[in-house]
Automatic annotation (TrEMBL):
Protein name stated in the entry: diguanylate cyclase
Organism from which the protein derives: Nitratireductor arenosus
EC number: 2.7.7.65
CC per GO annotation: plasma membrane
A single MF term (Gene Ontology): diguanylate cyclase activity
Catalytic activity: 2 GTP = 3',3'-c-di-GMP + 2 diphosphate
Keyword terms: Membrane, Transmembrane, Transmembrane helix
Keyword Flavoprotein: no
Length: 399
C-alpha cells in the first residue's frame, strides 16, 4: 500500500472516531442538533474515504470517482450546517442547493480533461472552497465569539484556502496519469496529509467547543433557581464577592437589598404550593423587569430574594426597593383570585469598606427585620454601623 493509501486508511479511522464522539455528545440536549449533523458528516467522511480507496481497484472508475465527489460534497455541507447551527446562524439552503446542482454536472464535464491540467484541478476544488468559504464568512459575522470560536473560524478559513492550494500542488507534483494511479502520487500524499491535519484540528476544536458549552450549561443550571430563572443562593454567593471586590478597588458605591414575601406561610396554606409558586414567580418577574444589566439578583431562600446594586448608595437602593414594593403590592397575579394582592418587605444595606458578603447580608437582614416589625410592606435601611445581638434564626421565624 502506498503512503497516501495509509493516510486514507488513517483518515477513515479518524473520521469514525469523531463520528462516534459526536454521536455520544449528541445525547445532551444543549448541543444535540449540531452534534448530530457533525456526527453525520464524519460518517459520510468515512464513506468517502472508503470510496476513494476503491478507485484504484476498478477498471473504469468514472462512476466511483463521481460517487466520491458526491459523498465528499455532502459530508462538507453536513459538517458546515452543524457548525452554523451551533452558532444559531441562518443556513443558506438555497445557495447550497444551487451550488450542488451546478457542481455535479461540472464534475462530470471535467472528468475527461487532462489530469495534470491546472484548470481541471481548480474546477474540481472550487465547490469545496465556496462551501467552506461561505461558512467562514457567516461565522466571522456571528456575535459573541470567544477565543476558541475565533480559532475555529481561523482553522475553517485555512481549510477553505487549502482547496485553492491543491491545484498548485497538482501542477508541481502531478496527480497521476489515471484516477487509479492517484493514490500512488506525491500529490495524493500531500493532499491527504493536509486533509488529515485539518480534519483532526477541526474535529478537536469543535468537540472542545461543544464540551465547553455543556460545562457552561451545567454550571448555569447549578447556579440557577429552576422556578424563577434567577440565581440560586449558591450562584448569588459566587457572583457577589467578585463584584464587590471590584467595587471596593474602584470605590464605587453599592448596596444590597433583601426582599421577603409577607405572610408567605399563609399563602401556601390558603392556595397550596402551586399558588405559592405563582406568587414567587410573579415577584421574581418584577425583579427581572426592574433590574439593570449590572445588577445581581438571586432567590436566596424559599420566599427570600436579594439584589446587589452596583453604583447605588443607600438612598438610591431605597428608591429601587420602593418602586418594586409598590408595583408588587398593586399587581394582579394571573391564576390567583382577582381581588387578592400580596406584599413584600425590604431591607437595604450599603456596601462599606472591607465588607464581606455576610456583613452586607447581616445588616440588610436586620433592616428587613425592622420592616417586618413595622407592619410589613415597607422598606427599611440599615444604619452604617449596627450592633447585632439578636438571633437571626429567631428574626426569620417572625416573618
Amino acid at each position: 500500500m502506498s503512503a497516501a493509501g495509509y493516510i486514507l486508511a488513517i483518515n477513515l479511522v479518524v473520521a469514525g472516531l469523531f463520528a462516534g464522539a459526536f454521536a455520544w455528545v449528541s445525547i445532551y440536549s444543549k448541543v444535540r442538533v449540531p452534534a448530530r449533523w457533525i456526527a453525520a458528516s464524519f460518517v459520510l467522511g468515512m464513506v468517502n474515504f472508503g470510496v476513494e480507496w476503491m478507485v484504484s481497484a476498478v477498471d473504469n472508475p468514472r462512476f466511483v470517482v463521481f460517487s466520491a465527489f458526491v459523498v465528499s460534497i455532502a459530508a462538507q455541507i453536513t459538517f458546515n450546517v452543524g457548525v452554523l447551527k451551533k452558532y444559531d446562524l441562518r443556513i443558506p439552503w438555497r445557495f447550497l442547493a444551487i451550488l450542488v446542482f451546478a457542481s455535479l454536472p461540472l464534475n462530470v464535464a471535467i472528468y475527461d480533461m487532462p489530469r495534470d491540467s491546472f484548470t481541471r484541478v481548480l474546477l474540481y476544488q472550487l465547490p469545496y472552497f465556496v462551501i467552506q468559504g461561505t461558512a467562514v464568512l457567516l461565522l466571522i459575522r456571528a456575535p459573541g465569539k470567544r477565543y476558541l470560536d475565533i480559532a475555529l473560524t481561523g482553522v475553517l478559513g485555512a481549510g477553505a484556502l487549502h482547496f485553492l492550494a491543491k491545484p498548485f500542488f497538482a501542477a508541481a507534483f502531478g496527480p497521476g496519469d489515471r484516477p487509479q494511479t492517484y493514490v500512488d502520487s506525491i500529490y495524493a500524499l500531500i493532499s491527504q496529509s493536509m486533509g488529515a491535519v485539518l480534519i483532526v484540528a477541526t474535529g478537536l476544536l469543535v468537540a472542545v467547543i461543544l464540551v465547553r458549552d455543556l460545562l457552561i450549561d451545567a454550571t448555569t443550571k447549578s447556579e440557577t433557581d429552576s422556578l424563577t430563572g434567577l440565581l440560586n443562593r449558591r450562584g448569588f454567593e459566587e457572583r457577589v464577592p467578585q463584584v464587590t471586590r471590584l467595587l471596593g478597588e474602584t470605590r464605587i458605591p453599592a448596596s444590597i437589598v433583601i426582599c421577603d414575601l409577607d405572610h408567605f406561610k399563609a399563602v401556601n396554606d390558603s392556595y397550596g404550593h402551586p399558588g405559592g409558586d405563582l406568587v414567587i414567580r410573579a415577584f421574581a418577574a418584577q425583579l427581572i423587569e426592574a433590574k439593570a444589566e449590572n445588577h445581581v439578583v438571586g432567590r436566596i431562600g424559599g420566599e427570600e430574594f436579594a439584589i446587589l446594586l452596583p453604583g447605588a448608595n443607600a438612598a438610591a437602593a431605597r428608591l429601587f426597593a420602593e418602586a418594586i414594593r409598590s408595583a408588587f403590592a398593586a399587581l394582579e397575579i394571573q391564576g390567583m383570585p382577582a381581588p387578592v394582592r400580596f406584599t413584600a418587605s425590604f431591607g437595604v444595606a450599603e456596601l462599606k469598606a472591607d465588607d464581606m458578603l455576610s456583613d452586607m447580608l447581616r445588616r440588610a437582614d436586620l433592616a428587613l427585620y425592622e420592616a417586618k416589625n413595622s407592619g410589613r410592606n415597607c422598606v427599611r435601611v440599615a444604619p452604617r454601623i449596627v450592633h447585632d445581638n439578636g438571633d437571626r434564626r429567631t428574626q426569620r421565624a417572625m416573618r
